[in-house]
Amino acid sequence: MPSLHDIATWQPLLRLLHAAHADTLAAPGGHVSGQISPGAWSVPLPYRPPQPGRASLVSDNQDEFDAVGLITEALMKDGSDGVSFVVEASSTPGGLRLHLIEPSTSAEPGIATAHPGTLLLVDGALPEPVRRLPDPVPDAVPAASADVELLQRTLRERLPHAVGATEEEIAAAELRLGVPLPPELRALYQVVRGRHEDWDDLQDPYDIIGCELFPLGELYVADAASREVMWQFGAMEAIETGPEDSVQQLVGSPGWIVFGDNGGGDRIAVDLTPGPDGHVGQVIIIGHEGNIGAGLVADSLTDMVVHRHFGGRPVPRVERPPLVAHVNHVSVPGVEAAAHPGLEVLSIGVWKKEPLSLAPVFGLPRLRTLCAYEGTLADPCEISRLTHLEYLRLPPAEWRVLLDAGAVPTGLLAAGIEARRQQDNPLRIIALADEILALHGRPPLTGVTVLEGAAS
């Protein structure tokens, strides 16, 4: 088996990279970088399109697959989740210097890049939306359509040969979940326990129930921990549930009991912590592509199964000042226009006018996230006056200003460096990251292993 730290493992990929980027690697400071994991990779090699009239085949880029395959074998041998790399010209004529950057507990992994992901400045800290628990709704009750007897009678008519779960099996599921099954969900499993071997060719559970029903033993609580949200995404979200909402727009809730799937990866759950205009026991859908929120499917399980209601109900649109503001040349026209007491996230993107002052958002009590593109801030040191920041993402130059001035906010939980993928050398970004980590008493990123190889 190949070894990850043996230059021979990397030599085929180095040859391909040198052939594709000979001019870049010959230039002073020139480099190329990428990331490889056992299941995917991002390497800067040209894509060879398939011949006209047919689909792309592995053989069209076989040399890349073979070269990366040696490295993924080494990763699996070591039990590693992945490795990033930077290739530079070596001091040896015709040689290349390979820097291997392995994962660190001080940062989330970068996404398809060798640059470090979010720096974790406080051990175990989570973005505010992930920490948010559901608000109590003491007046919430089951919907008028909820009818346990009608639900069971209908299921028995549609599934005359179904096998129901025993009381012992239901009790075991409740003990595992840590919450009693709501009456309708209990009634459903008393008729059909959901095991795959119980279905025959004449019974399609999706058509009969309205979703792919999970076996009783696969029910789970979709709390925030069940929905993995990276800092760079979670910090950019804000949870807002209005009085007109039937579902609380959370990352997860201890009252969301998942019992099925829509066939496309979205989970179907019974909701015991509804929004102000919702019902206890309503059916919701939790999307697999978003970071927060869920949608209403039906007011009750009876409504979904018996009456075939799947579209929820209209929610009146209520205009409120946005909790997340995107200031850029086509959206919010400035920091002053974004400022209001409820603002939580300020993102400053492409800006074609004079750099912006942050003075309009000084003192805002809920502003916890700031992201800014290069050159958009008139005075980066103004950031030190945003005393409630938890997450800060800036380009390297702006971080340099803050570090040199001793103006990095002290209350940060996490930080990001907005690096340009191939222009900014990841090794310099890692050195900058280590300065930020040291300022917060965190260990540096994992040491870099340097290997020397031939260009061809």
Uncertain segments are none
Helix content: 10-25%
Q: What would you call the shape?
A: globular
Secondary structure tally: strands:
17
In what range is the share of β-strand residues?
A: 15-25%
State mean pLDDT (0 to 100 scale).
91
With helices defined by DSSP (H or I, 4 residues minimum), what is the helix count?
A: 13
Which sequence of SSEs, written as H and E, runs from N to C?
Answer: HHEEHEEEHHHHHEEHEEEEHEHEEEHEHE
Strand order of the largest sheet: 5-16-15-14-13-12
Radius of gyration: 27 Å
Distance between the termini: 23 Å
Give the helix/strand class: alpha+beta
Give the oligomeric state of the chains in this entry, treating copies of one chain as homo and distinct chains as hetero: single chain
The major sheet is characterized as: 6 strands, mixed
